[in-house]
Amino acid sequence: MASGLEGTFKDYKNNWSCGSLDEWREHLADTETTHRGVTKCVTCGADVDFIWTGKLKNGKTYPDVLCEECKNQ
Amino acid sequence: MTNFVEHTPTIDGSQVKAGKHTGLKEDSWINGYVTVIKNVGKPDEQILCKDKHNLLTTDGRDFFHAQVYTNTSAGTQGANYIALTTDSTGADAADTTLPSEITTGGLERAVATTITHVDDSNTTTLVKTYTASATHTAVQMSGTFNAASVGILAHEAVFTSVTLVSSDTLQVTWTLTLG
Questions:
Q1: pLDDT > 50? residue B78
Q2: How far is CA B6 from CA A10, B9, B22, in A?
Q3: Which of residues 86-125 of B touch A (CB under 8 A)?
Q4: What is the ipTM of this complex?
Q5: Secondary structure letter of residue B159 according to DSSP
Q6: Structural domain tally of chain B?
Q7: Is the pLDDT of residue B2 over 50?
């Protein structure tokens, strides 16, 4: 766990911080991070509780997630 | 920003300099950035604001302290309801309500449909996509609340005024940092 990070956006796990959302998005695209929360399935719109780990390449600060049903189709 | 330096004489006449440079800007620990897009993915997509810094209200700051530090019972609903208004007076830290908040026509206050946090980071994202079911003229400010009605107004941000007609969408994304 890092400390002393000065930027507005902080990744304590990877000891990294930055001052802008664009830089944060780049970081999420370059570094594996874990996202957790609730969202809508991008295919059917069902509510999804998710934990997702990976490099976020969609230019957003959160992943696009499929529900189990759509994932299995 | 606080910069405080105290010069204290010692018994031998030299001085000890005790300094406190916190280097903190106002609201540097709780920030919000708003992106608002009309008709995402459609030919007439329009970005109304991108990554615009929000205003943390006075009540919002008190709310976060209560949620995190002073509550003596389990925490309550987070500030993850998103609301819109046509009010043109701008964001104000003293606001406790969103003036002229829209309550009908598809743009009424609603809990964010995407609520996510990046583990081991200080960042959370809230997203809500509204679909207008009536015409709304000059929609131009958003706020976050901790309840479906009334509640505490935590953040406010102004964006480029936009008119929506029925079936237009408005995607509001709040990216929030705390800590």
A1: yes
A2: 32, 10, 14
A3: 113-123, 125
A4: 0.92
A5: E
A6: 1
A7: no
